[in-house]
């Protein structure tokens, strides 16, 4: 056997250069002249906060939740109607209603200048100062004009007057109980007293915050990010600082907001201020077109078919404010209120078929309204001439005597029930005038007749 050739020392190499398990020397890495392509970094999903992997990490990744658009407090949508498929009101229909009511009650046009405040009438925002307009509408909410005027007079007599309005600065310095005592003649004085105090406190705090932020911006040069100041010059910002210093209850900065929807949203942040109050201030005080919806406007919009029967007042505002032409909003609002108060057939408590209804003046929009939509019929009371109703054994029949008086007689099935289980007797309600009239007519029918008279008393929502 031939002897084994020994390898040269130069061919063996050092031990440190060999691969393990006698796999030979480490191969030399040959650098390529072509540059290598960069590896793509693929996104790695961050572990969930509650997972074991995330707990082991020193700084676990933050999971940012999906930002959802916050729903409006009053479910208003300034870009789309809550009833997008409802066809009315069209501009032509609105023009016709405005023409008919203007012919009946006279033209209603927005004044070129806001009138001075009245010391005897609270109103709904027809004053130059926005804060004064808001607080006057709070006084007039859910009460009559006489009561709201008495509340206004109580504030003026207790705290004094400034330019025909209560001294709101003096009102802001007292406790809610003192405000309640001053407006006790106006109704809901406890609630309104707290609301007025809260509004004054919030406005004062907002103005102090705005003033401090504008002063800080002037010193540091960094934008303060104050609402409705981004388009103002430094001279205009200095004027606002001086205005707040003179009157810490001013709301003049609201007029700098461009969009009407943003103004309404800003006013809705105040306690006790709803959509109708914000819309009234926008319409009367700020003189911007807005279709404010009160109880008269709401009722007419339903009767005219401008909104569905189940539409709320806020939904009616949202729908009609988008559909109506801007130049008709002031007139239709004022005319609906005037017509709802003066036309007997369009009042909230009207009674179709009554003597007053027949004597009432013809309604100029009679051919356009359907009052049956909001009528609430009472429960029917069956009045029979026979001794007992054979068709309905569960209903108590009413037996008539020849003298015209009525005697309630239980049926056979009802008599068995009362014998087995005692029932507390309830006093019978007195018949209405229409029932008495129906009873008189039915008494003229012969005794052997089986005719019956049904009474349905119609009532309208207030």
From TrEMBL:
Residue spans of biased composition, Polar residues class: 9-19
Gene3D superfamilies: Helix-hairpin-Helix base-excision DNA repair enzymes (C-terminal), Hypothetical protein, domain 2
Superkingdom field: Eukaryota
Acidic residues: bias regions: 449-462
Pfam families found in the cross-reference section: HhH-GPD
PANTHER family from the UniProt entry: HYPOTHETICAL BASE EXCISION DNA REPAIR PROTEIN (EUROFUNG), PTHR47203
Name the UniProt record assigns to this protein: Putative DNA glycosylase
């Amino acid at each position: 056997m031939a002897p084994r050739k020994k390898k040269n020392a130069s061919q063996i190499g050092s031990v440190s250069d060999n691969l393990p398990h006698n796999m030979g020397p480490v191969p030399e890495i040959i650098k390529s002249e072509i540059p290598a392509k960069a590896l793509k970094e693929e996104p790695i999903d961050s572990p969930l906060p509650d997972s074991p992997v995330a707990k082991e990490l020193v700084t676990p990744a933050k999971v940012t939740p999906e930002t959802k658009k916050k729903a409006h407090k009053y479910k208003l949508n300034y870009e789309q109607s809550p009833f997008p498929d409802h066809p009315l009101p069209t501009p032509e229909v609105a023009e016709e209603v405005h023409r008919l009511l203007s012919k009946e009650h006279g033209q209603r046009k927005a004044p070129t200048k806001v009138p001075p405040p009245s010391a005897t009438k609270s109103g709904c925002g027809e004053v130059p100062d926005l804060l004064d307009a808001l607080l006057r509408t709070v006084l007039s909410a859910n009460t009559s004009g006489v009561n709201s005027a008495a509340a206004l007079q109580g504030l003026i007599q207790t705290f004094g007057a400034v330019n025909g309005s209560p001294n709101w600065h003096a009102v802001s310095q007292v406790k809610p109980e003192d405000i309640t005592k001053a407006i006790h003649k106006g109704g809901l004085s406890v609630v309104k007293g707290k609301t007025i105090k809260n509004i004054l406190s919030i406005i004062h705090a907002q103005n102090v915050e705005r003033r401090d932020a504008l002063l800080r911006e002037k010193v540091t040069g960094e934008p303060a990010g104050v609402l409705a100041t981004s388009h103002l010059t430094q001279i205009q910002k200095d004027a606002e600082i001086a205005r707040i210093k003179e009157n810490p209850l001013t709301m003049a900065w609201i007029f700098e907001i461009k969009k009407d929807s943003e103004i309404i949203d800003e006013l809705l942040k105040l306690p006790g201020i709803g959509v109708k109050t914000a819309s009234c201030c926008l319409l009367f005080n700020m003189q911007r077109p807005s279709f404010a919806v009160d109880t008269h406007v709401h009722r007419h919009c339903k009767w005219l078919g401008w909104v569905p029967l189940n539409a709320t007042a806020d939904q009616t505002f949202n729908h009609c404010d988008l559909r109506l032409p801007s130049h008709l909003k002031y007139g239709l609002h004022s005319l609906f209120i005037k017509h709802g108060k003066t036309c007997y057939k369009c009042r909230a408590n009207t009674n179709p078929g009554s003597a007053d209804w027949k004597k009432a003046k013809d309604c100029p929009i009679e051919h356009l309204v359907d009052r049956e939509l909001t009528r609430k019929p009472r429960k029917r009371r069956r009045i029979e001439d026979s001794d007992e109703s054979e068709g309905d054994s569960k209903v108590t029949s009413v037996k008539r005597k020849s003298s015209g008086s009525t005697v309630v007689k239980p049926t056979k099935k009802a008599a068995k029930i009362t014998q087995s289980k005692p029932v507390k007797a309830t006093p019978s309600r007195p018949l209405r005038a229409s029932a008495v009239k129906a009873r008189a007519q039915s008494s003229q029918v012969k005794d052997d007749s089986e005719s019956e008279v049904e009474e349905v008393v119609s009532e309208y929502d207030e």
